[in-house]
Amino acid sequence: MDVFDVAILGGGPAGISAGIYAARFKLNAVVISNSLGGTAQTAHLIENYPGTGVISGFELMQKFKEHLKSFEIPVIEKHVYSASKENDIFTIKLTDEEVKAKYILIATGTKRRKLGVPGESQFYGKGVSYCVTCDAFFYRDKTVAVIGGSDAANMAAILLASMAKKVYVIYRKEKLRGELVWIERVITNPKIEVLYNSNVIEVKGKEFVEGVKLEDGREISVDGVFVEIGSIPECCCANDLGIEINQKGYIQVDSSQKTNVDGVYAAGDVTSGSNGFQQIVTAASEGVIAIKSIFDDMERSKVTLWKKE
Amino acid sequence: MEKRIKVIIISLMLIGTLLMAGCNESNPDKVLSESDKTEIKKMLANVDSKVDILLFTSESGCYSCSKTETLMKEFDQLSDKISLKVYDTEKNRDMATKYNIELVPAIVVIGKEDYGIKHYGFPGGKEFNPLLEVIISSSMERPKVSEEIGKKVNTISNPVEVKIFVTPTCPSCPDMVRGAYYYSLVSEKISTVTIMSNEFEEYSKYYKISAVPTVIFNEKFSKEGQMAEEAFVNYLVVSS
């Protein structure tokens, strides 16, 4: 079995950018992802990625993929189950095969955070959704609630307002956060009503969602609930390899994207990097820095070997 | 690498932005741009043997019949091995009955044999790639599966129709569709129908769809969201 120089786990902005730079550094790399394009694909509109103007998340990530493809970096579209290290070689177990590599770069991103209230799981697919670009269509001329107050929630509210009759944005704090551009669009949209200082404690309904119950006792009638309350890191293989995780659950990296385990680097939303500012542009940047660090490491190790001889 | 897998990987990379808007902005009478055509032609070079594409439309009115017919006629011109046949369902009731056409436009793919592949609606947005891939794959022999999966598939006792409800902007839908098409290619007992929910509101309401992807197995089980391969195969088995 071939041993790759580096196995890049994850196919979002960090993983794909890493793949592109790995090719430029002539590294024998492989990108492993069961969802090439990552969660960035679900973004309704991206207006802050330099050079692309206004673009959907899907289109932007297609451009990333096309760019990666131009370098003929192998892509394995499978789920990573575990990783182990023996004699300085990592073995990554996939659905039905193994990949070996000298370095691994974890760029597995995040998964959606759930509300964790009664009714949320019960009504998933029956009014509760985590993908506004997928499911907004089903709420044409209906009333919906977006739970959250960040950029993702604000974008979701704007997209839904283009179809739904009425959109509630239900947020636990006293003002929305994120880019002011999106906040302004939300608060000036006549179809959107923001309920500040409000916590959803239950999703109610019979066969489908019929409403949400708030902590202060109010009940809001809605046909759909879109949960946009952020994400949690998918620290693939962290336990397997003894990788340090910070208090918030992200992989701790230094300025070269190195983790506490030799040969393991991490990049993108899964890490503590970029001062916690999780953006496509910062994820891409971390992926690139990680590959440069791996390349430098490999070069250094060659020098050491030569000296030993 | 198996040719079929290679095709999927290449198409993922190449045709991503195709048909996102469902029209060619520089020429509204056409659907495919010249660059789309170039990329599709490259893909269609992988077609092994002749593939018949049956397009069912309706003269009496249909949301996307005209656009879909334009697209498929343009597509037909891109390979000698693709043969498009257009049927008006009212005038060709026998054919519509034979292929159990419930909605129009309907695209039926008949490759090396009838693998049971059907698509309802304009195949735009993210749903173009899986359709293109299965058109190519259907020109080949049935794929071989691992011994373990083969054993499970062999326990499917009766035909299973898999209906997948999707929207053109759903990022996780194409993978679900690809998976289902794959099993239609693997087993003659499995057929797959993809439904563009955004075009068929009443049909979607009938199946109580409010999220995509939603998969209906043989009208018995409904499952929302992405599914692991193992779970998908288990549903195939229990719904047969």
UniProtKB/TrEMBL annotation, chain A:
The keyword Flavoprotein applies. Keywords: Flavoprotein, Oxidoreductase. It comes from the Archaea. InterPro entries: FAD/NAD-bd_sf, FAD/NAD-binding_dom, Ferredoxin-NADP_redctase_2. Its EC number is 1.8.1.19. It comes from Candidatus Methanofastidiosum methylothiophilum. GO terms for molecular function: oxidoreductase activity. The keyword Flavoprotein applies. Residues 4-287 form the FAD/NAD(P)-binding domain. This is Sulfide dehydrogenase subunit alpha.
TrEMBL record, chain B:
The keyword Electron transport applies. Residues 59-113, 161-236 form the Thioredoxin-like fold domain. Keywords: Electron transport, Transport. InterPro entries: Thioredoxin-like_fold (IPR012336), Thioredoxin-like_sf (IPR036249), TON_0319-like (IPR011903). It holds the Pfam family Thioredoxin_3. Belongs to the glutaredoxin family. This is Thioredoxin.
